[in-house]
Amino acid sequence: MIWIIGGTKDSRDILDEILKVSKEKIVISTATEYGGKLLKDVGENENVEVISERLNVIQIEKIISEKNIGLIIDASHPYAQNISKIVISMVSFLNERAKSEKKILKYIRFERKMLDYGSENVFKFENVKELVEFLNQFENKNILSTLGSNALEDIKEIREKNNLFIRILPTASSIENAENLGYLPKNIIAMQGPFSKNMNIAMLENFKIDYLITKESGETGGELEKLEACQECKVAILAIKRPVLDYGIVFNTISELIDYVKNLSV
């Protein structure tokens, strides 16, 4: 059985491709109920089970053992390090324990290809704290955060000197979280991405944005369109660097990953 750790468009694409070439039963997990709703259609497939909750160590081990998982495909978001770290450690532990049985649990990672941001009007930071400190030297700038609702607490300090707009998912929980943290409705852009270059340009121009906050998420997921829009509008990009983790076997294209899966017996 295969377990896909999801939460990204990539994970849904990987699932679709595996279903075309394999009759293997698949579990796909996402940390949120919203992510589960995006998988509603494939969830009707008798070979697919969808799990929509944030998993702890005990639940992860239970999934692997009870569902007899032979291959884990980690297609979680590049910044969702916690789940990756836990699963990598769990795989190592279980493989060590099962040495005598000669049964190896395989773990592979799908990592979005990095985008070349160039150097003009681009600033990179190790973490959100560094980015906030950078912006605190300015006043009355229009700033658009595309980090999502999970970062709202960490970036709210920016509002003290500047005008901060936030782009978040149009879910009740995301909007409620923003309002509870003091974000005004006029500064909340609640829309589902990914967004085209022209849509990004429209937002940048409408709100007269000076700085756009993003992550090094990779070529997919709308990052390229954000970059191109910022370049055209002469908006500075503030990017949080992608975390570095030793994943072992890593694939940057879905086709290569699928070829690997086809050659396995899990």
UniProtKB/TrEMBL annotation:
InterPro entries reported in the protein's UniProt record: Precorrin-6x_reduct
A Pfam family this chain is assigned to: CbiJ
UniProt superkingdom: Bacteria
Enzyme Commission number: 1.3.1.54
Pathway the protein contributes to: Cofactor biosynthesis; adenosylcobalamin biosynthesis
GO molecular function, one term: precorrin-6A reductase activity
GO biological process, one term: cobalamin biosynthetic process
Keywords: Cobalamin biosynthesis, Oxidoreductase
UniProt entry tagged with the keyword Oxidoreductase: yes
Keyword Ubl conjugation: no
Residue stretches spanning the membrane: none
Record PANTHER family: COBALT-PRECORRIN-6A REDUCTASE (PTHR36925:SF1)
Protein name (Swiss-Prot/TrEMBL): Precorrin-6A reductase
Organism name: Leptotrichia alba
Gene: cobK
